[in-house]
Design goal:
2 domains, alpha/beta
Amino acid sequence: MGSNANALLKSLIVGLLLAGIYAVTRTVNLTELPIFTDEAIYIRWSQIGSRDASWRFISLTDGKQPLYTWIAMILLRFIADPLFAGRLVSVGAGFASLAAVWLVSFEFFHSRKISFLASAIYLFSPFTLMYDRLALYDSLVSAFYLWSLYFAVLLVRTVRLDFALILGMVLGGGILNKTSGFLSLYLLPTTLMLFDWKSPQREVRFIKWLLLACVSAVLSAMIYGVLRLSPFFHIIGQKDNVFVYTLGEWFAHPNAGYVGNLRGMIDWISGYLTVPIFISSLVPLFILRHKFLEKILLYCWWCLPFFALALFAKVLYPRFILFMTMPLIILAAYTLKIFIDYFKKTVFSFTMITLIFFPSIRASYYIIMSPVYAPIPLADRGQLIDDWPSGWGVKEVTNFILNQSRRVKVSVYTEGTFGLLPYSLEIYLIDKPGIEIIGLWPVGGDMPENMQEDAFNHPTYLVLNYSQSPPDGWPTQKIAEYIKGRNPGAKLQLFQIMPVESPNI
């Protein structure tokens, strides 16, 4: 009894330590990396929906499910900084994923050591760290994926109605957040690997499981059906077809992008999980005799959606595969546990574990303290740091406009009507008196008459993000420019429109 109490106390202490490290790594310098295009869109949607109930389904206008924005709508009521509030949704989702990693690991292998190792890998993984600190859907997708796996396994092992109902709610939340949540539902039959096929009541238990699985599926469909209240529901399917091939398109050009997609996805996994952790996750393939079915199930929940995405994807970003890598974290922890047990508490064991974790810790340090130099895949460097989607300079431009508006009315014209501009400025300035924000697209040709009129009457500014110079003939004076990360060829620029003559009104 005493030894069990000591073990529980140690587990509690380690768990609290991991939770503390999680809080620090996910919240320190949370807004150091500037806002980028997709974050600006989601936060602006959340801001609009939080103030006008008729726009609670605003994300559906672009074919995106609304759960992330609904949660952000709540936080925006209590947190002054919209970017911090939006990213805090992912911080909370990441903590849910951390807890689920521990529980799934323990349910599969009944080892606290594996559970804590898996939690440590999750904690220091550059992949999870990056997306737990961004105002995106994807950390929430991972949380629902892990919790769906956990309750699906509990259901197949216990065949109980309460677990079926909870699973249905988790599945419903997952598909209410993003279309990829349907994958958890499609993978439900794979959990039959852990069904007790040797039970004398196996036929009755199987029929009961089948009925309960249907209950879960129907409940999730009922939750998803809430979206049909919006007239924009049909846009979800249209948007999905932008990113994946329909069956008709795929049959017309089978395997068109498969090799390129697969190569890129493997590069992202090895880059973001780091090579030592990725290799560790594959080692259990060669030591399957222990917990054979559990390990095969984890590989299924990784490789089936992974290779399906490689086969059908039109457009890919690293964040699309984040949730799929969660089983690999658990499998890597299994490998590390075997390694530690074999070499015991030796200098060699300590050295090897340090070397395995070092690339993750190094990358995580840069993500938190100096994201410009973070060693992340190039696909994300362009999006988040070095190219036009990144928001370097947004904070400075916002402060400049805000200071100017304290004296006189200010008009701000932005290159873009959707995305980083004007949304990144609107989320901070839309409620400020004396500031008018107008999106332009495209920027070119003759200067709009209303811009000439504004420039004559009060300070008027132009913010460029894609173009590197104003159109010819526009009377402008450069105020400032901000280089995107380490790419001098990409800049956000602020110009003042100079009044030339009194406009004809």
